[in-house]
Write a structure and sequence with these properties.
This protein is α+β, with helices and mostly antiparallel strands. The protein contains three helices and eleven strands, in the order αααβββββββββββ.
Length: 179
């Protein structure tokens, strides 16, 4: 009976919207199917009280290195767990490099921005004034005037939930779930 209920619910969710969960009475016959149903909620995986225990268990299992649970009868795929502790604001991309003090993450603007002229000035020996705050400074002509432009940098933001898995349910768009 529970399998019939689950299959009917999943079919209804797929027909209406692959990421819709309705009511608060989603039932599943096993933990993997509970996880799939809860993750498909557009309001978040722990929106409904019934989802909180299986989702908490999921986070514990993934954090311990266990694989993502499966659910038979549902077209479901998950990636291996990933880890991304940093992110950048819009208009910046995250870059990482190794420096004298270990690995360092930096947000670098995706477009050139006007910066102070001192960054574009040569010091007689052909070298420009370079700091961690501007990359690739150069003179660019804009509106008939030369302007110093470069890619500005910023400190990355730190995620409160840096672990993730990418899930796909019944061929719908892949969704990244952070934990």
């Amino acid at each position: 009976m529970k399998n019939l209920l689950l299959n009917s619910f999943v079919a209804a969710c797929y027909i209406l919207s692959p990421y819709r969960i309705s009511g608060g009475n989603a039932q599943a016959s096993d933990w993997g199917c509970q996880v799939v149903l809860c993750l498909s909620s557009p309001d978040g995986p722990a929106k409904f009280a019934e989802c909180r225990p299986p989702i908490r268990k999921l986070w514990r299992e993934l954090a311990s290195g266990h694989s993502f649970p499966t659910c038979s009868g549902v077209g479901f795929h998950s990636s291996r767990p990933g880890y991304e502790p940093y992110y950048c604001e819009a208009g910046y991309r995250l870059e990482g490099d190794f420096g004298p003090h270990g690995r360092k993450a930096t947000c670098v603007s995706t477009a050139l921005k006007q910066v102070r002229n001192v960054f574009c000035v040569s010091h007689g020996d052909g070298h420009q004034f370079v700091t961690d705050s501007v990359r690739s400074p150069r003179w660019e002509k804009e509106d008939g005037r030369l302007q110093c432009k470069g890619h500005s940098t910023a400190r990355p933001n730190v995620r409160s939930q840096p672990h993730y898995v990418d899930i796909t349910i019944d061929g719908a768009a892949t969704q990244r779930v952070w934990y």
